[in-house]
Q: What sequence folds into this?
């Protein structure tokens, strides 16, 4: 079942314009379906505590870790599940996560409605950056794809409600590396990392700077 879900993610990436063929500039790197009882040593936790529960990655609030097999990855995808109506986020991190020099791209639920309603292009571990309200609420689960074209990061959110795409110019490039971050009772499944150039990925999206900004409640706790 987990392998089928990973194949579905790859098919979704292809449908969204990401080519994963042998001749593509974007090739699959590290992946994890979390289909086991313990996280193991492939994941290195840099903050908080990460573990596996019900075949999903879970963690304490403000947890962050990276997959050693994603050391060459410059893009990543994961499926984010809300666990309740509390304050929650799931994040994909790209860059030198151990050193704190990474992009931290998250989708967040903070309105108590049981849907994702906000997102952010941050740095480090839920650090500063661009936090904004999504154009419309996103039901759980949602697939979060994150990739770079030069200094511009693209966040693509795919759910039963459709696709929303946002971009943010970080003004800098990050080294390779991929991981995940958690807050609240969120669960994350089917992580897939990729490496290669942005020429094989779509770059169109709404600039995050043009979206309505809001107060990030995850920074107030």
A:
């Amino acid at each position: 079942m987990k392998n089928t879900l990973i194949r579905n993610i790859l098919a979704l990436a292809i449908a969204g314009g990401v080519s994963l063929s042998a001749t593509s500039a974007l090739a699959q790197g590290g992946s994890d379906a979390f289909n086991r009882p313990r996280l193991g040593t492939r994941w290195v936790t840099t903050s908080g505590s990460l573990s596996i529960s019900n075949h999903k990655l879970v963690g304490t609030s403000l947890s962050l870790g990276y997959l050693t097999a994603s050391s060459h990855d410059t893009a990543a995808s994961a499926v984010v599940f809300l666990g309740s109506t509390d304050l929650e986020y799931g994040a994909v991190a790209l860059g030198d996560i151990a050193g704190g020099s990474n992009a931290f791209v998250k989708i967040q639920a903070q309105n108590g409605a049981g849907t994702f309603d906000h997102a952010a292009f941050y740095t480090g571990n839920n650090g500063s950056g661009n936090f904004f309200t999504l154009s419309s609420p996103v039901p759980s689960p949602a697939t979060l794809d994150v990739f770079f074209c030069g200094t511009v990061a693209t966040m693509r959110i795919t759910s039963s409600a459709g696709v929303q795409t946002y971009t943010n110019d970080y003004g800098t490039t990050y080294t390779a590396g991929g991981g995940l971050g958690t807050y609240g009772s969120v669960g994350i499944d089917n992580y897939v990392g990729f490496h290669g150039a942005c020429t094989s990925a779509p770059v169109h999206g709404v600039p995050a700077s043009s979206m309505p900004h809001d107060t990030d409640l995850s920074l107030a706790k």
In short: The CA atoms of residues 7 and 190 lie 10 Å apart. The first strand starts at residue 26 and ends at 32. Helices lie at 2-15.
